[in-house]
Amino acid sequence: MRYGGKVVLVTGGSHGIGSGCVRAFAGAGATVVFCALEKDESEAVAREVTAAGPGSASFLPCDVTKEPEVRALVREVVARHGRLDCLVNNAGWHPPHKPIDDFTSREFRDILELNVVSVFVACQEALPHLRRTKGCIVNIASLVGIMGQIHATTYVATKGAVASFTKALAIDEAAHGVRVNSISPGNIWTPLWKEAVDASPDPAGTKAAGEAAQVLGRMGTTEEAGRLCLFLAADATFTTGVDHILSGGAELGYGRKTRIEKT
After folding, report:
1. Residue 28, SS3?
2. Which residue of 22, 67, 134, 189 pairs with 177 in a disulfide if CB–CB is 3.0 to 4.6 A?
3. Are 181 and 236 in contact (CB under 8 A)?
4. Does the annotation mark 254 as catalytic?
5. What are phi and psi of 177, to 5 degrees?
6. Catalytic residue among 155, 161, 185, 207
7. CATH at 181
8. Do residues 122 and 42 lie in contact, with contact meaning Cβ atoms separated by under 8 Å?
9. Is residue 179 a contact partner of residue 240, using CB atoms and an 8 Å limit?
10. Which domain, by its residues, includes 21?
11. Tens of pLDDT along 12-34?
12. Averaged over 156-184, what is the pLDDT?
């Protein structure tokens, strides 16, 4: 019951890193509410996680690009459970890779709404409640927001913004006892990664290349991402304004990585 008695809101919690967060927090005893667009998948996750215990998970539909829905989501969580202790802003998307010449300004505005503005709105609505509980916020950024990524100017810009926003908000909220941190995952084995592998003309080679990008020789798991978010909420009580890299060492060294065999 490492986080027992706490109420957690996770955006984009039906699969991927969001699902890892739902499972980690509920496994630590928390009452978790998560939003997503996929009703059937989300309800199945909620049932599975609640059955596993010791905490619980419930699903509320929400399109985070619609500000009224985000604000209503936060209000509903507090109305149901009487408090809010942690907000995990995970909902987001990585557009297909293409050079800047092929992106439109409309596409850029759309990804900003999803990956950045939704984080701002959720934080703004949640903070009055988090101040009362001396709670915390964990924002999901990305390793490529630090490193850059080929043909991903719009996505990289949004994730860099999330990490910078996190630091600025941490300064403001320290006076209220609210901690604000972010994590920057590298290659995590998510449904998006699986889709890319399955669509590749060489699935085995594509997956191997993804694994070889880390000095640890594998991709991370959604469970590992969830456990890091739980650590920031439950244990890292003297940590705020920090971006935590979850990369398996992908940013270390030069060029292509290969697994280092143990001797």
Report:
1. coil
2. 134
3. yes
4. no
5. 80, 15
6. 155
7. 3.40.50.720
8. no
9. yes
10. 7-189+222-246
11. 999 999 999 999 999 999 999 99
12. 98
Which tens digits make up the pLDDT trace of 185-198? 999 999 989 999 99
The pLDDT, as a whole number, for residue 112 is 98
Identify whether 217 is part of a domain: no
User: Residue 182's CB: how many other CB atoms inside 10 A?
Assistant: 29
What lies within 8 Å, CB to CB, of 218 at 6+ separation is: 211, 248
Instruction: Return the pLDDT at 255.
Output: 66
Q: Which of 30, 35, 34 is nearest to 85 (CA)?
A: 30
For residue 202, being part of any structural domain is answered with no
| pLDDT mean across residues, the chain | 96
Domain count, the chain: 1
β 86-89/7-11 pair status: parallel
Residue 165: inside a domain: yes
Inter-residue contact 213 to 257 (CB < 8 Å)? yes
Q: How far apart are CA 27 and CA 34, in angstroms?
A: 15
Location of structure tokens 């997503």: 36
User: How many percent of the chain have pLDDT more than 90?
Assistant: 94
The answer to whether residue 198 is domain-embedded is no
CA distance 11 to 77: 12
DSSP string, 158-185: HHHHHHHHHHHHHHHHGGGT-EEEEEEE
